[in-house]
Write a structure and sequence with these properties.
Structural class: alpha+beta
Distance between the termini: 52 Å
Number of strands: 5
CATH superfamily of the largest domain: [2Fe-2S]-binding domain
Number of domains: 2
Number of helices: 6
Radius of gyration: 15 Å
Helix content: 25-40%
CATH topology of the largest domain: DNA polymerase, domain 1
Shape: globular
Length: 153
C-alpha cells in the first residue's frame, strides 16, 4: 500500500511516497539516496545493511518502512557526520579492504560500544552477525579492543 509516510532519518524528517511494506534499505538507498547503507544478501544474514532504529542495530533489508514511523533511524552517514570516534580506530587499524561491509560493521560496532556492557571479551559475539568477505575480522577486533580499552582507561 503506497501512501505518504513520514520518517526521521539522521535527524531529518522526510515524507516519502513508498509502499509501507517496502524494505527500509530500499527507501534509504533509492528514495533518500543515502547509499552508505549497502545491500548484501537481502535476507538479514550478512549485516551490510545495518542501521540503528530507536537505538538498536537492525538489518534494514528486513524492516518494512511502516515499522519505523515515529522512530529515529540513524545511518552510517550520520556516524561519519558526527565523526564517531570508532572511525579513527578503523582507520588506524587499516580495517577496510574492499570496504563493502564496513558501513554495517561500523553500525554494529557503534551500537555495541554504546551499550554499558561492552567488553573486549565479548567482541566476537557482538560482531558475529556481520560478514566480511575480505576477512578483516582480526583488524575489526583490534580496533574495537583499542577503543574499549581507551574508553575504560
Amino acid at each position: 500500500m503506497t501512501s505518504m509516510t513520514k520518517i526521521t532519518v539522521n535527524g531529518v524528517l522526510y515524507t516519502v511516497g513508498d509502499d509501507i511494506n517496502k524494505p527500509l534499505l530500499r527507501v534509504l538507498r533509492d528514495t533518500l539516496r543515502l547509499t552508505g547503507t549497502k545491500y548484501g544478501c537481502g535476507k538479514g544474514l550478512c549485516g551490510a545493511c545495518t542501521v540503528h532504529v530507536a537505538g538498536v542495530a537492525v538489518r534494514s533489508c528486513q524492516i518494512p518502512l511502516g515499522s519505523v514511523v515515529g522512530q529515529k533511524v540513524i545511518t552510517i552517514e550520520q556516524l561519519a557526520k558526527d565523526r564517531h570516534p570508532l572511525i579513527s580506530y578503523w582507520v588506524k587499524n587499516n580495517v577496510p579492504q574492499c570496504g563493502f561491509c564496513q558501513s554495517g560493521q561500523l553500525m554494529s560496532a557503534a551500537n555495541y560500544v554504546a551499550s554499558k556492557n561492552a567488553k573486549t571479551s565479548d567482541i566476537d559475539d557482538a560482531m558475529s552477525g556481520n560478514l566480511c568477505r575480505c576477512g578483516s575480522y582480526p583488524r575489526i577486533k583490534s580496533a574495537l579492543s583499542q577503543y574499549l580499552k581507551q574508553q575504560n582507561a
